[in-house]
Amino acid sequence: MATVKPKPAAKTERSTWLLTAPALVLLTVAATGPLFIMLIYSFLEPGQYGNVVWKFSTKAWFNVILQRDIFDGTLTWADAHLTILWRSVKLAMTTTVFAVLVGFPTAWFIATRTPRMRLFMLFLITIPFWTNLLIRTFAINQIIRNEGVLNSFLLWIGVIDAPIQIIYSDFAVFLGMTYVYLPLMVLPLYAAIDRFDMRLLEAAYDLYANRWQALRRVVLPIVKPGLIAGSILVFIPALGAYVTPRILGGGRNMMIGNFIDLQFGQGRNWPLGAALSVILLIFVTSMLILYVRFVNRSTDNG
Amino acid sequence: MADRAFQVARLPGFNTIAIMVFVMLYLPIGLLVLFSFNAGPSVAIWEGFSLQWYPKAWGNEQVRDATIRSLIIASSAALISTTLATMAALGTTRRKRSPGQTMIYVMINQPLMVPEIVTAVALLIFFASIKVATGYQGLGYLIAAHSAFCIPFAYLPIRARLEGMDLTLETAAADLYATPWQTFRHVTLPLLMPGIIAGMMLAFITSLDDVVISLFVKSAGQETLPTYMLGQIRRNITVEVNAISTLLLGLTVIMLTVFFLLTRKQD
Predict the structure, then answer these.
(1) Residues whose CB is less than 8 angstroms from the CB of residue A301 and which lie 6 or more positions away in sequence, other chains included
(2) Does the beta carbon of B220 lie under 8 angstroms from any beta carbon of chain A?
(3) Chain B residues touching residue A15 (CB < 8 angstroms)
(4) Is A233 touching B (CB cutoff 8 A)?
(5) What range(s) does the ABC transmembrane type-1 domain occupy (chain A) (predicted)?
(6) How far is the C-alpha of B113 from the C-alpha of A258, rounded, in Å?
Protein backbone atom coordinates (compact mmCIF):
# COMPACT_ATOMS: atom_id res chain seq x y z
CA MET A 1 0.00 0.00 0.00
CA ALA A 2 2.78 2.38 0.95
CA THR A 3 4.32 2.25 -2.53
CA VAL A 4 1.22 3.61 -4.23
CA LYS A 5 1.68 7.13 -5.42
CA PRO A 6 -0.88 9.20 -3.55
CA LYS A 7 -3.48 10.63 -5.88
CA PRO A 8 -4.83 14.09 -5.26
CA ALA A 9 -7.85 13.78 -2.99
CA ALA A 10 -10.18 15.71 -5.29
CA LYS A 11 -9.40 13.38 -8.19
CA THR A 12 -10.04 10.26 -6.07
CA GLU A 13 -13.34 11.66 -4.94
CA ARG A 14 -14.38 12.53 -8.47
CA SER A 15 -13.63 9.02 -9.69
CA THR A 16 -15.58 7.55 -6.76
CA TRP A 17 -18.63 9.45 -7.88
CA LEU A 18 -18.08 8.70 -11.58
CA LEU A 19 -17.76 4.98 -10.95
CA THR A 20 -20.73 4.75 -8.60
CA ALA A 21 -22.97 7.10 -10.59
CA PRO A 22 -24.53 4.50 -12.96
CA ALA A 23 -25.51 2.23 -10.05
CA LEU A 24 -26.85 5.16 -8.05
CA VAL A 25 -28.85 6.47 -11.01
CA LEU A 26 -30.50 3.08 -11.61
CA LEU A 27 -31.23 2.67 -7.91
CA THR A 28 -32.74 6.15 -7.77
CA VAL A 29 -34.96 5.51 -10.78
CA ALA A 30 -36.05 1.96 -10.00
CA ALA A 31 -35.84 1.64 -6.21
CA THR A 32 -35.41 4.73 -4.02
CA GLY A 33 -37.08 7.45 -6.08
CA PRO A 34 -40.43 5.65 -6.41
CA LEU A 35 -40.60 5.51 -2.60
CA PHE A 36 -40.86 9.31 -2.53
CA ILE A 37 -43.51 9.27 -5.25
CA MET A 38 -45.41 6.77 -3.12
CA LEU A 39 -45.24 9.20 -0.19
CA ILE A 40 -46.83 11.89 -2.39
CA TYR A 41 -49.55 9.47 -3.52
CA SER A 42 -50.51 8.81 0.09
CA PHE A 43 -51.66 12.44 0.27
CA LEU A 44 -53.94 12.27 -2.79
CA GLU A 45 -57.50 11.11 -3.33
CA PRO A 46 -58.34 7.69 -4.74
CA GLY A 47 -59.55 7.52 -8.32
CA GLN A 48 -62.77 5.69 -9.03
CA TYR A 49 -61.12 2.86 -11.00
CA GLY A 50 -57.82 2.74 -9.16
CA ASN A 51 -54.93 5.18 -9.49
CA VAL A 52 -55.41 8.65 -7.98
CA VAL A 53 -57.02 12.02 -8.45
CA TRP A 54 -54.47 14.82 -8.10
CA LYS A 55 -56.11 16.58 -5.18
CA PHE A 56 -54.45 17.00 -1.78
CA SER A 57 -56.07 14.97 0.95
CA THR A 58 -55.08 13.49 4.30
CA LYS A 59 -57.97 11.06 4.18
CA ALA A 60 -55.80 8.03 3.47
CA TRP A 61 -53.71 8.62 6.59
CA PHE A 62 -56.81 9.28 8.61
CA ASN A 63 -58.42 6.09 7.32
CA VAL A 64 -55.54 3.93 8.44
CA ILE A 65 -56.87 3.84 11.99
CA LEU A 66 -60.19 5.68 11.95
CA GLN A 67 -63.36 5.49 9.90
CA ARG A 68 -66.27 7.88 9.59
CA ASP A 69 -69.73 6.41 9.47
CA ILE A 70 -71.33 7.15 6.07
CA PHE A 71 -74.72 7.94 7.59
CA ASP A 72 -74.26 9.89 10.80
CA GLY A 73 -70.60 10.87 10.42
CA THR A 74 -69.46 9.50 13.78
CA LEU A 75 -65.84 8.47 14.13
CA THR A 76 -64.95 4.92 15.08
CA TRP A 77 -61.78 2.87 15.08
CA ALA A 78 -61.15 1.15 11.77
CA ASP A 79 -61.42 -2.30 13.34
CA ALA A 80 -60.67 -4.24 10.15
CA HIS A 81 -57.43 -2.33 9.59
CA LEU A 82 -56.34 -2.55 13.21
CA THR A 83 -57.03 -6.29 13.28
CA ILE A 84 -54.78 -6.80 10.26
CA LEU A 85 -52.00 -4.59 11.65
CA TRP A 86 -52.19 -6.36 15.00
CA ARG A 87 -52.19 -9.80 13.34
CA SER A 88 -49.08 -8.85 11.35
CA VAL A 89 -47.19 -7.72 14.44
CA LYS A 90 -48.40 -10.71 16.46
CA LEU A 91 -47.47 -13.25 13.76
CA ALA A 92 -44.08 -11.65 13.11
CA MET A 93 -43.36 -11.68 16.86
CA THR A 94 -44.47 -15.28 17.41
CA THR A 95 -42.39 -16.33 14.43
CA THR A 96 -39.35 -14.53 15.84
CA VAL A 97 -39.75 -16.00 19.33
CA PHE A 98 -40.22 -19.53 18.01
CA ALA A 99 -37.28 -19.08 15.62
CA VAL A 100 -35.12 -18.17 18.65
CA LEU A 101 -36.36 -21.19 20.59
CA VAL A 102 -35.44 -23.70 17.89
CA GLY A 103 -32.70 -21.64 16.20
CA PHE A 104 -30.57 -21.27 19.30
CA PRO A 105 -30.19 -25.01 19.99
CA THR A 106 -29.51 -25.57 16.29
CA ALA A 107 -26.81 -22.90 16.15
CA TRP A 108 -25.33 -24.24 19.38
CA PHE A 109 -25.33 -27.77 17.97
CA ILE A 110 -23.54 -26.63 14.79
CA ALA A 111 -20.98 -24.56 16.70
CA THR A 112 -20.01 -27.51 18.90
CA ARG A 113 -19.27 -29.93 16.00
CA THR A 114 -15.88 -30.60 14.44
CA PRO A 115 -14.74 -27.90 11.98
CA ARG A 116 -15.48 -30.03 8.89
CA MET A 117 -18.91 -31.03 10.11
CA ARG A 118 -19.59 -27.39 10.95
CA LEU A 119 -18.91 -26.25 7.39
CA PHE A 120 -21.14 -28.95 5.99
CA MET A 121 -24.01 -28.09 8.35
CA LEU A 122 -23.69 -24.39 7.60
CA PHE A 123 -23.94 -25.25 3.92
CA LEU A 124 -27.11 -27.23 4.73
CA ILE A 125 -28.59 -24.19 6.48
CA THR A 126 -27.53 -21.81 3.71
CA ILE A 127 -29.10 -23.75 0.82
CA PRO A 128 -32.71 -23.24 1.93
CA PHE A 129 -31.84 -19.62 2.70
CA TRP A 130 -30.96 -19.03 -0.97
CA THR A 131 -33.60 -21.21 -2.54
CA ASN A 132 -36.80 -19.76 -3.82
CA LEU A 133 -39.09 -18.65 -1.02
CA LEU A 134 -42.10 -19.37 -3.20
CA ILE A 135 -41.05 -22.98 -3.68
CA ARG A 136 -40.41 -23.47 0.02
CA THR A 137 -43.83 -22.06 0.83
CA PHE A 138 -45.33 -24.37 -1.81
CA ALA A 139 -43.64 -27.29 -0.11
CA ILE A 140 -45.35 -26.42 3.18
CA ASN A 141 -48.64 -25.90 1.37
CA GLN A 142 -48.45 -29.37 -0.17
CA ILE A 143 -47.90 -30.92 3.25
CA ILE A 144 -50.60 -29.20 5.27
CA ARG A 145 -53.38 -28.69 2.72
CA ASN A 146 -56.54 -30.73 3.23
CA GLU A 147 -55.63 -33.20 0.49
CA GLY A 148 -51.94 -32.86 1.35
CA VAL A 149 -49.30 -35.31 2.48
CA LEU A 150 -50.00 -35.00 6.21
CA ASN A 151 -53.77 -35.43 5.99
CA SER A 152 -53.51 -38.21 3.39
CA PHE A 153 -51.10 -40.04 5.64
CA LEU A 154 -53.23 -39.64 8.78
CA LEU A 155 -56.34 -40.75 6.88
CA TRP A 156 -54.49 -43.73 5.45
CA ILE A 157 -53.29 -44.99 8.85
CA GLY A 158 -56.78 -44.32 10.20
CA VAL A 159 -56.02 -41.80 12.95
CA ILE A 160 -58.59 -39.38 11.56
CA ASP A 161 -61.77 -39.77 9.49
CA ALA A 162 -61.78 -36.33 7.91
CA PRO A 163 -58.88 -34.03 6.98
CA ILE A 164 -57.77 -31.61 9.71
CA GLN A 165 -58.03 -28.01 8.62
CA ILE A 166 -54.53 -26.58 9.16
CA ILE A 167 -54.06 -24.48 6.06
CA TYR A 168 -55.66 -21.02 5.76
CA SER A 169 -55.20 -20.21 9.43
CA ASP A 170 -52.90 -17.95 11.42
CA PHE A 171 -51.15 -21.09 12.61
CA ALA A 172 -50.35 -22.10 9.03
CA VAL A 173 -48.85 -18.67 8.32
CA PHE A 174 -46.80 -18.87 11.52
CA LEU A 175 -45.59 -22.35 10.59
CA GLY A 176 -44.66 -21.28 7.07
CA MET A 177 -42.86 -18.13 8.15
CA THR A 178 -40.87 -19.99 10.80
CA TYR A 179 -39.90 -22.49 8.12
CA VAL A 180 -38.81 -19.94 5.53
CA TYR A 181 -37.08 -17.46 7.86
CA LEU A 182 -35.37 -19.86 10.29
CA PRO A 183 -32.01 -19.83 8.44
CA LEU A 184 -31.89 -16.05 9.01
CA MET A 185 -31.93 -16.75 12.74
CA VAL A 186 -29.49 -19.66 12.78
CA LEU A 187 -26.70 -17.98 10.78
CA PRO A 188 -26.06 -14.88 12.99
CA LEU A 189 -26.62 -16.96 16.15
CA TYR A 190 -24.02 -19.43 14.93
CA ALA A 191 -21.57 -16.58 14.28
CA ALA A 192 -22.05 -15.37 17.86
CA ILE A 193 -21.81 -18.81 19.50
CA ASP A 194 -18.77 -19.68 17.41
CA ARG A 195 -16.88 -16.83 19.12
CA PHE A 196 -18.01 -17.98 22.57
CA ASP A 197 -15.19 -19.42 24.67
CA MET A 198 -16.45 -22.73 26.07
CA ARG A 199 -13.99 -22.43 28.98
CA LEU A 200 -16.29 -19.75 30.40
CA LEU A 201 -19.03 -22.33 30.63
CA GLU A 202 -16.65 -24.71 32.34
CA ALA A 203 -15.76 -22.01 34.84
CA ALA A 204 -19.43 -21.38 35.51
CA TYR A 205 -20.02 -25.06 36.24
CA ASP A 206 -16.93 -25.15 38.48
CA LEU A 207 -18.49 -22.32 40.45
CA TYR A 208 -21.62 -24.43 41.00
CA ALA A 209 -23.85 -22.77 38.46
CA ASN A 210 -26.58 -25.07 37.22
CA ARG A 211 -27.28 -25.36 33.50
CA TRP A 212 -29.98 -22.72 33.49
CA GLN A 213 -27.87 -20.22 35.45
CA ALA A 214 -24.88 -20.82 33.22
CA LEU A 215 -27.00 -20.33 30.11
CA ARG A 216 -28.69 -17.21 31.37
CA ARG A 217 -25.76 -15.50 33.12
CA VAL A 218 -22.79 -16.59 31.01
CA VAL A 219 -23.88 -17.64 27.51
CA LEU A 220 -26.77 -15.28 26.82
CA PRO A 221 -25.00 -11.98 27.59
CA ILE A 222 -22.18 -12.96 25.22
CA VAL A 223 -24.33 -14.19 22.34
CA LYS A 224 -26.83 -11.34 22.72
CA PRO A 225 -25.62 -9.43 19.63
CA GLY A 226 -26.23 -12.52 17.48
CA LEU A 227 -29.60 -13.04 19.10
CA ILE A 228 -30.63 -9.47 18.33
CA ALA A 229 -29.29 -9.61 14.77
CA GLY A 230 -31.18 -12.86 14.13
CA SER A 231 -34.37 -11.49 15.64
CA ILE A 232 -34.22 -8.37 13.45
CA LEU A 233 -33.45 -10.44 10.36
CA VAL A 234 -36.48 -12.64 11.02
CA PHE A 235 -38.89 -10.01 12.32
CA ILE A 236 -38.48 -7.54 9.45
CA PRO A 237 -39.25 -9.84 6.50
CA ALA A 238 -41.93 -11.59 8.58
CA LEU A 239 -43.69 -8.30 9.23
CA GLY A 240 -43.65 -7.40 5.52
CA ALA A 241 -44.37 -10.95 4.35
CA TYR A 242 -46.55 -11.25 1.29
CA VAL A 243 -46.04 -14.62 -0.38
CA THR A 244 -46.30 -16.85 2.71
CA PRO A 245 -49.55 -15.40 4.11
CA ARG A 246 -51.01 -15.37 0.59
CA ILE A 247 -50.32 -19.06 0.01
CA LEU A 248 -50.90 -20.37 3.53
CA GLY A 249 -53.26 -17.82 5.07
CA GLY A 250 -55.73 -17.39 2.26
CA GLY A 251 -58.04 -14.39 1.98
CA ARG A 252 -59.20 -14.25 5.57
CA ASN A 253 -55.84 -14.31 7.31
CA MET A 254 -54.22 -11.36 5.59
CA MET A 255 -51.11 -9.63 6.85
CA ILE A 256 -50.25 -6.01 6.16
CA GLY A 257 -48.45 -6.93 2.91
CA ASN A 258 -51.56 -8.59 1.48
CA PHE A 259 -53.72 -5.75 2.72
CA ILE A 260 -51.52 -3.26 0.86
CA ASP A 261 -51.85 -5.43 -2.26
CA LEU A 262 -55.62 -5.40 -1.84
CA GLN A 263 -55.73 -1.59 -1.99
CA PHE A 264 -54.13 -1.68 -5.43
CA GLY A 265 -56.49 -4.41 -6.65
CA GLN A 266 -60.09 -4.81 -5.59
CA GLY A 267 -59.85 -2.13 -2.89
CA ARG A 268 -59.08 0.57 -5.50
CA ASN A 269 -57.66 2.81 -2.83
CA TRP A 270 -54.11 3.62 -3.92
CA PRO A 271 -53.59 6.42 -1.37
CA LEU A 272 -54.51 4.10 1.51
CA GLY A 273 -52.17 1.44 0.12
CA ALA A 274 -49.42 4.03 -0.20
CA ALA A 275 -49.99 5.28 3.35
CA LEU A 276 -49.86 1.72 4.73
CA SER A 277 -46.64 1.09 2.78
CA VAL A 278 -45.10 4.26 4.21
CA ILE A 279 -46.06 3.14 7.73
CA LEU A 280 -44.46 -0.28 7.15
CA LEU A 281 -41.38 1.38 5.71
CA ILE A 282 -41.01 3.80 8.64
CA PHE A 283 -41.45 0.97 11.12
CA VAL A 284 -38.82 -1.21 9.47
CA THR A 285 -36.35 1.64 8.98
CA SER A 286 -36.60 2.73 12.62
CA MET A 287 -35.93 -0.83 13.74
CA LEU A 288 -32.87 -0.95 11.52
CA ILE A 289 -31.61 2.39 12.83
CA LEU A 290 -32.08 1.22 16.43
CA TYR A 291 -30.20 -1.95 15.56
CA VAL A 292 -27.29 -0.06 13.96
CA ARG A 293 -27.12 2.18 17.07
CA PHE A 294 -27.06 -0.90 19.27
CA VAL A 295 -24.26 -2.48 17.22
CA ASN A 296 -22.20 0.72 17.27
CA ARG A 297 -22.67 1.11 21.01
CA SER A 298 -21.67 -2.46 21.79
CA THR A 299 -18.59 -2.28 19.56
CA ASP A 300 -17.60 1.01 21.23
CA ASN A 301 -17.82 -0.64 24.63
CA GLY A 302 -16.04 -3.81 23.60
CA MET B 1 -9.22 -31.57 26.99
CA ALA B 2 -11.18 -31.53 23.77
CA ASP B 3 -13.34 -34.31 25.09
CA ARG B 4 -14.08 -32.43 28.25
CA ALA B 5 -14.95 -29.20 26.44
CA PHE B 6 -17.36 -31.19 24.32
CA GLN B 7 -19.11 -32.50 27.42
CA VAL B 8 -19.34 -29.03 28.89
CA ALA B 9 -20.85 -27.61 25.73
CA ARG B 10 -23.60 -30.21 25.74
CA LEU B 11 -26.96 -28.87 26.78
CA PRO B 12 -29.91 -31.19 27.37
CA GLY B 13 -32.40 -31.43 24.52
CA PHE B 14 -30.34 -29.24 22.18
CA ASN B 15 -29.16 -32.10 19.98
CA THR B 16 -32.67 -33.43 19.56
CA ILE B 17 -34.03 -30.02 18.59
CA ALA B 18 -31.16 -29.39 16.17
CA ILE B 19 -31.58 -32.73 14.40
CA MET B 20 -35.34 -32.15 14.19
CA VAL B 21 -34.65 -28.75 12.63
CA PHE B 22 -32.43 -30.25 9.95
CA VAL B 23 -35.04 -32.92 9.19
CA MET B 24 -37.89 -30.42 9.10
CA LEU B 25 -35.86 -28.06 6.92
CA TYR B 26 -35.38 -30.66 4.22
CA LEU B 27 -38.44 -32.89 4.55
CA PRO B 28 -40.91 -30.50 2.80
CA ILE B 29 -38.49 -29.76 -0.04
CA GLY B 30 -37.67 -33.47 -0.29
CA LEU B 31 -41.34 -34.41 -0.58
CA LEU B 32 -41.92 -31.70 -3.18
CA VAL B 33 -39.07 -33.07 -5.28
CA LEU B 34 -40.19 -36.68 -4.72
CA PHE B 35 -43.73 -36.03 -5.92
CA SER B 36 -42.46 -34.38 -9.09
CA PHE B 37 -41.62 -37.96 -10.10
CA ASN B 38 -45.08 -39.26 -9.21
CA ALA B 39 -46.82 -41.42 -11.79
CA GLY B 40 -50.21 -40.20 -10.60
CA PRO B 41 -51.74 -36.70 -10.64
CA SER B 42 -51.54 -36.18 -6.86
CA VAL B 43 -48.94 -34.26 -4.90
CA ALA B 44 -49.72 -36.31 -1.78
CA ILE B 45 -50.41 -39.92 -2.79
CA TRP B 46 -47.52 -41.82 -4.33
CA GLU B 47 -48.43 -43.97 -7.32
CA GLY B 48 -45.06 -45.01 -8.63
CA PHE B 49 -42.10 -43.46 -10.39
CA SER B 50 -42.48 -41.58 -13.64
CA LEU B 51 -40.78 -38.75 -15.50
CA GLN B 52 -43.93 -37.79 -17.36
CA TRP B 53 -44.44 -34.42 -15.62
CA TYR B 54 -41.24 -32.89 -16.93
CA PRO B 55 -42.08 -33.16 -20.65
CA LYS B 56 -45.68 -32.30 -19.76
CA ALA B 57 -44.61 -29.08 -18.07
CA TRP B 58 -42.41 -28.18 -21.02
CA GLY B 59 -45.25 -28.97 -23.41
CA ASN B 60 -47.37 -26.34 -21.67
CA GLU B 61 -47.03 -23.20 -23.75
CA GLN B 62 -47.58 -20.88 -20.78
CA VAL B 63 -44.76 -22.56 -18.86
CA ARG B 64 -42.43 -22.31 -21.84
CA ASP B 65 -43.22 -18.64 -22.38
CA ALA B 66 -42.76 -17.85 -18.69
CA THR B 67 -39.47 -19.76 -18.57
CA ILE B 68 -38.04 -17.93 -21.56
CA ARG B 69 -39.24 -14.59 -20.19
CA SER B 70 -37.74 -15.33 -16.75
CA LEU B 71 -34.42 -16.31 -18.30
CA ILE B 72 -34.29 -13.16 -20.45
CA ILE B 73 -35.04 -10.95 -17.44
CA ALA B 74 -32.64 -12.76 -15.11
CA SER B 75 -29.75 -12.72 -17.62
CA SER B 76 -30.25 -9.04 -18.46
CA ALA B 77 -30.63 -8.09 -14.79
CA ALA B 78 -27.55 -10.13 -13.84
CA LEU B 79 -25.48 -8.55 -16.60
CA ILE B 80 -26.58 -4.98 -15.90
CA SER B 81 -26.44 -5.17 -12.11
CA THR B 82 -23.03 -6.88 -12.12
CA THR B 83 -21.55 -4.29 -14.47
CA LEU B 84 -22.86 -1.43 -12.35
CA ALA B 85 -21.90 -3.17 -9.11
CA THR B 86 -18.35 -3.83 -10.34
CA MET B 87 -17.90 -0.15 -11.18
CA ALA B 88 -19.38 0.86 -7.84
CA ALA B 89 -17.14 -1.59 -5.98
CA LEU B 90 -14.07 -0.22 -7.78
CA GLY B 91 -15.17 3.28 -6.84
CA THR B 92 -15.73 2.55 -3.15
CA THR B 93 -13.02 0.06 -2.17
CA ARG B 94 -9.26 0.36 -1.65
CA ARG B 95 -9.26 4.13 -1.50
CA LYS B 96 -9.56 6.87 1.05
CA ARG B 97 -13.07 7.25 2.37
CA SER B 98 -14.76 10.15 0.72
CA PRO B 99 -17.45 12.11 2.54
CA GLY B 100 -20.32 10.63 0.55
CA GLN B 101 -19.27 7.04 1.21
CA THR B 102 -21.88 6.23 3.86
CA MET B 103 -24.62 7.61 1.67
CA ILE B 104 -23.40 5.50 -1.24
CA TYR B 105 -23.45 2.34 0.94
CA VAL B 106 -26.96 3.10 2.16
CA MET B 107 -28.14 3.71 -1.43
CA ILE B 108 -26.58 0.51 -2.75
CA ASN B 109 -27.96 -1.64 0.06
CA GLN B 110 -31.32 0.06 0.12
CA PRO B 111 -33.14 -2.80 -1.70
CA LEU B 112 -32.06 -5.15 1.11
CA MET B 113 -33.56 -2.94 3.78
CA VAL B 114 -36.93 -1.96 2.35
CA PRO B 115 -39.68 -4.64 2.53
CA GLU B 116 -40.23 -6.08 -0.94
CA ILE B 117 -43.93 -5.32 -0.96
CA VAL B 118 -43.18 -1.63 -0.33
CA THR B 119 -40.71 -1.43 -3.24
CA ALA B 120 -43.18 -3.35 -5.39
CA VAL B 121 -46.04 -0.97 -4.70
CA ALA B 122 -43.84 2.09 -5.17
CA LEU B 123 -42.70 0.74 -8.55
CA LEU B 124 -46.29 -0.02 -9.53
CA ILE B 125 -47.25 3.60 -8.85
CA PHE B 126 -44.23 5.03 -10.66
CA PHE B 127 -44.29 2.73 -13.69
CA ALA B 128 -48.07 3.05 -14.07
CA SER B 129 -47.69 6.75 -14.87
CA ILE B 130 -44.75 6.08 -17.21
CA LYS B 131 -46.74 3.37 -18.98
CA VAL B 132 -49.56 5.84 -19.54
CA ALA B 133 -47.25 8.65 -20.58
CA THR B 134 -45.08 6.69 -23.02
CA GLY B 135 -47.35 3.84 -24.05
CA TYR B 136 -44.41 1.45 -23.69
CA GLN B 137 -45.47 -1.84 -22.09
CA GLY B 138 -42.43 -4.03 -22.73
CA LEU B 139 -40.07 -6.03 -20.57
CA GLY B 140 -37.95 -2.92 -19.89
CA TYR B 141 -39.74 -2.17 -16.61
CA LEU B 142 -39.14 -5.67 -15.25
CA ILE B 143 -35.49 -5.59 -16.34
CA ALA B 144 -34.92 -2.14 -14.78
CA ALA B 145 -36.58 -3.13 -11.49
CA HIS B 146 -34.73 -6.45 -11.30
CA SER B 147 -31.39 -4.86 -12.19
CA ALA B 148 -31.84 -2.33 -9.39
CA PHE B 149 -32.64 -4.78 -6.59
CA CYS B 150 -29.91 -7.18 -7.77
CA ILE B 151 -27.19 -4.52 -7.38
CA PRO B 152 -26.52 -5.18 -3.65
CA PHE B 153 -26.36 -8.94 -4.25
CA ALA B 154 -23.77 -8.49 -6.99
CA TYR B 155 -21.92 -5.75 -5.08
CA LEU B 156 -21.21 -7.68 -1.87
CA PRO B 157 -19.06 -10.54 -3.23
CA ILE B 158 -17.26 -8.23 -5.67
CA ARG B 159 -16.41 -5.82 -2.89
CA ALA B 160 -15.29 -8.66 -0.61
CA ARG B 161 -12.97 -9.92 -3.36
CA LEU B 162 -11.55 -6.44 -4.01
CA GLU B 163 -10.86 -5.86 -0.33
CA GLY B 164 -8.82 -9.06 -0.27
CA MET B 165 -6.61 -7.86 -3.14
CA ASP B 166 -3.71 -5.57 -2.30
CA LEU B 167 -2.42 -2.92 -4.68
CA THR B 168 1.10 -4.30 -5.21
CA LEU B 169 0.38 -5.95 -8.57
CA GLU B 170 -1.35 -2.87 -9.91
CA THR B 171 1.53 -0.71 -8.68
CA ALA B 172 3.99 -3.05 -10.41
CA ALA B 173 2.02 -2.78 -13.66
CA ALA B 174 1.99 0.99 -13.39
CA ASP B 175 5.73 0.98 -12.71
CA LEU B 176 6.16 -0.98 -15.94
CA TYR B 177 4.44 1.83 -17.85
CA ALA B 178 1.05 0.19 -18.22
CA THR B 179 -1.66 2.76 -18.79
CA PRO B 180 -4.48 2.80 -16.19
CA TRP B 181 -6.73 1.00 -18.71
CA GLN B 182 -4.11 -1.68 -19.45
CA THR B 183 -3.59 -2.17 -15.72
CA PHE B 184 -7.31 -2.59 -15.21
CA ARG B 185 -7.79 -4.85 -18.24
CA HIS B 186 -4.81 -7.17 -17.67
CA VAL B 187 -4.28 -7.07 -13.90
CA THR B 188 -7.29 -5.92 -11.87
CA LEU B 189 -10.04 -7.51 -13.94
CA PRO B 190 -8.59 -11.04 -14.12
CA LEU B 191 -7.92 -10.99 -10.37
CA LEU B 192 -11.43 -9.73 -9.70
CA MET B 193 -13.11 -12.26 -12.00
CA PRO B 194 -14.10 -14.87 -9.35
CA GLY B 195 -15.86 -12.12 -7.39
CA ILE B 196 -17.61 -10.86 -10.51
CA ILE B 197 -18.83 -14.33 -11.48
CA ALA B 198 -19.99 -15.01 -7.92
CA GLY B 199 -21.84 -11.69 -7.87
CA MET B 200 -23.40 -12.36 -11.24
CA MET B 201 -24.69 -15.74 -10.09
CA LEU B 202 -26.24 -14.33 -6.93
CA ALA B 203 -27.89 -11.61 -9.01
CA PHE B 204 -29.17 -14.19 -11.50
CA ILE B 205 -30.68 -16.39 -8.76
CA THR B 206 -32.18 -13.40 -6.98
CA SER B 207 -33.83 -12.18 -10.17
CA LEU B 208 -35.01 -15.66 -11.20
CA ASP B 209 -36.62 -16.24 -7.77
CA ASP B 210 -38.31 -12.90 -7.41
CA VAL B 211 -42.07 -13.00 -7.24
CA VAL B 212 -43.37 -9.93 -5.38
CA ILE B 213 -41.76 -7.18 -7.45
CA SER B 214 -42.44 -9.02 -10.74
CA LEU B 215 -46.09 -9.42 -9.77
CA PHE B 216 -46.57 -5.67 -9.37
CA VAL B 217 -44.35 -4.43 -12.19
CA LYS B 218 -45.34 -6.81 -15.01
CA SER B 219 -47.75 -5.67 -17.66
CA ALA B 220 -50.66 -7.90 -18.72
CA GLY B 221 -49.51 -11.23 -20.14
CA GLN B 222 -45.93 -10.90 -18.86
CA GLU B 223 -45.93 -13.88 -16.51
CA THR B 224 -42.54 -14.90 -15.19
CA LEU B 225 -42.02 -18.45 -13.93
CA PRO B 226 -42.63 -17.54 -10.25
CA THR B 227 -45.72 -15.40 -10.96
CA TYR B 228 -47.09 -18.21 -13.16
CA MET B 229 -46.53 -20.68 -10.31
CA LEU B 230 -48.18 -18.36 -7.79
CA GLY B 231 -51.18 -18.12 -10.11
CA GLN B 232 -51.40 -21.93 -10.29
CA ILE B 233 -51.72 -22.37 -6.53
CA ARG B 234 -55.24 -20.89 -6.61
CA ARG B 235 -56.39 -23.61 -8.97
CA ASN B 236 -55.98 -27.28 -8.35
CA ILE B 237 -52.25 -27.56 -8.43
CA THR B 238 -50.77 -30.21 -10.59
CA VAL B 239 -47.51 -32.08 -10.39
CA GLU B 240 -46.28 -29.80 -13.19
CA VAL B 241 -45.56 -27.14 -10.58
CA ASN B 242 -43.47 -29.69 -8.64
CA ALA B 243 -41.48 -30.48 -11.78
CA ILE B 244 -40.76 -26.78 -12.44
CA SER B 245 -39.84 -26.27 -8.77
CA THR B 246 -37.47 -29.22 -8.85
CA LEU B 247 -35.67 -27.86 -11.91
CA LEU B 248 -35.40 -24.40 -10.32
CA LEU B 249 -34.11 -25.92 -7.08
CA GLY B 250 -31.54 -27.95 -9.00
CA LEU B 251 -30.33 -24.84 -10.80
CA THR B 252 -30.04 -22.94 -7.51
CA VAL B 253 -28.09 -25.70 -5.78
CA ILE B 254 -25.65 -25.97 -8.71
CA MET B 255 -25.08 -22.21 -8.79
CA LEU B 256 -24.68 -22.02 -5.01
CA THR B 257 -22.12 -24.80 -5.00
CA VAL B 258 -20.10 -23.00 -7.66
CA PHE B 259 -20.51 -19.77 -5.69
CA PHE B 260 -19.15 -21.38 -2.52
CA LEU B 261 -16.20 -22.86 -4.40
CA LEU B 262 -15.42 -19.50 -6.00
CA THR B 263 -15.59 -17.44 -2.83
CA ARG B 264 -13.94 -20.00 -0.55
CA LYS B 265 -10.65 -20.01 -2.43
CA GLN B 266 -9.69 -16.41 -1.88
CA ASP B 267 -5.99 -17.16 -2.28
Answers:
(1) none
(2) no
(3) 91
(4) no
(5) 85-291
(6) 19
